[in-house]
């Protein structure tokens, strides 16, 4: 998508602090971290939000969560971590591209604010 910030980051047009990249995903550190470990995982393919996912995206989602688990293990997040995806304006989604926030290395209260 032409005006999508995360598509531009995935294409290398906008710099990011990359943590991981393969042919389908990019993980990079959040520019406004809310925990000692806070990174985002995005598919390189533009998908507007979790609301746009279908059964056909099951393999991609499996890859997303396997990648998150691997990255958290490498980063020493043995105490646990939280994975969040926001959907729509009322859900707190600020960039209309599917992305997963991963937060770790601090106690995360429930319910979230």
Automatic annotation (TrEMBL):
Domain HIT: 5-113
Short motif (Histidine triad motif): ranges: 97-101
Pfam families listed in its UniProt record: HIT (PF01230)
Protein name as it appears in the record: Histidine triad nucleotide-binding protein
């Amino acid at each position: 998508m032409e005006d999508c910030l995360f598509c531009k980051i995935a294409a290398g047009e906008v710099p990011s602090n990359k943590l991981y990249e393969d042919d389908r995903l990019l993980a990079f550190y959040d520019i406004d971290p809310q925990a000692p470990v806070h990174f985002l995982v995005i598919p390189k393919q533009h998908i507007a939000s979790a609301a746009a996912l279908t059964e056909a995206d099951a393999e991609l989602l499996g890859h997303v969560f396997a990648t998150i688990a691997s990255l958290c293990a490498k980063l020493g997040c043995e105490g646990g971590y939280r994975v969040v995806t926001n959907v729509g304006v009322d859900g707190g989604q600020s960039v209309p591209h599917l992305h997963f926030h991963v937060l770790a290395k601090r106690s995360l209260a429930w319910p979230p604010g």
